[in-house]
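Can anyone check this?
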Amino acid sequence: MSTSGLGRSGVAAVKWSALSTVLRFALQLLAQVVLARTLGPDIFGVFAIGMVVLTFASFISGFGFSWSLLQREVLREEDIRFAWTWQLIVGIATMGAVYLMAPWLAEYFKEPRAQVAIEWLSVTCLLSAAAAPATYLLQRDLNFRTAGLIQVGSYAAGYVAVGVPMALLGWGLDALVAAWLVQAAVVLVASYALKPHAVRPLFWYGDAALAVGTGRAVFFTNVVNWLLNNLDRVLIGRLLSAHSLGLYNVAYNLATVPNSLLLGALQPAFLAAGARLQNELERLGRAYFQMLATIFVLVFPVFVFLALVSPDLVRLLYGAKWTDAGLVLGILFMGMPAYVIWGISTPVLWNTGRKYHESALQVPLVLGGALAFYLLAPQGIEMAALVASLLLVLRAAVIGTTVFRALRLKMAELWPHIGRGLLLSAMCAASVIGGQHAVARFDLPLLSLAASTLLALLVPGALVVARPQLLGDQAVTMVIRFFPALDRLLSRFSLPASAAAPMADSLSEQRL
């Protein structure tokens, strides 16, 4: 397997996307810790009900019209006007529907406090729909620097400038609702200001059928993905309590932060780059394989580490009243590598003409997942977390296998990279457990976390320094694509000439 990765423009896009995602993560962690400590699990549980409703409504209001702007090889003003017009229409309709259904939804979740939250959050259906065309146009241009700055700035405006002060002043649930509304409004204003586009209405034109077809595929895919991502919270909110949902939701949000960092950086750039490579399956396949191998070798050990330190992490960040979320967080962390694999696999389906495959392949998982959550969620949020993690693994397996067939890749060539990842993960796990046992008698989460982190870095790190070929050519080449100063590591690899040549070709590639 030769290793042609992303070209220079793709790497630059990923770097900017990664930088902005890291900045957003830092702000998010700071804001969420303050809010969680101030408001507690109960308030977060009520807000989580509103967010479950909102994410589904946002999928409907988006419908996928703007997605077609990213997929078109040649873009015209009519395409943008048509997408903008129908995004606005569907956004307004969805906002009205959610507002009117708020009393019934609050009754379903047995939580009257959720009604007002849902009514106010319905406004973001319109705001998000209106912002979508400019957002996708920025992604189409691989302008992830601007898109990233918008995301960071909007989060800072919503949560740091509004949400945290309101929470500290005693506004409770209203602080979270206001933060989300401000964030969505800033995204709309900033995205249009930095990427203005035609806004004259256009209800139909020659290529409208193609845009509607793409939107239909995106809509059904989003509905399926929403069900798979939110079945746990829907049933926890219904069968347990707002307190339990608050614990679970905070753990889930924290668990998804690392993979959000990865997918936030990789998925948009890979989707936009893949659209340009959709007629070059061999190059697309090499880039996909390289990313997948890197995930197994470098990403999986990180999540194993995070899973084992989860109890200490929760106690340190959120305090004693969130302790019950520690085990939930650890279970969810173990499923997150699968989520990353799924996230980079789905753009390939779209870029190889299989836009309906994602939703069709996952429908059986929706049915099986719904049954499993219904039966096991009443036993506690830990069982719900276990079902959620297993569901992520199944999704990654189903979608990843389909992508391998579409790109004519050989699974056998991936097994050595999986083996490397498992070895590094085992060493990381042993190091963490050793560090925890060494300081267990002190019962200090910060000390336990520090000892675990130190050993987890030193032991596998020493092995990699001594035998860098353990990482494999795919992972090292991907790292060097983003950090060229590390190219001296290549000289330490014991690679045959047949393997070294493709790596050099990949590193010298200038454009997508």
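Reply from J.R.: I decoded it. DSSP finds 18 helices and no strands in the chain.
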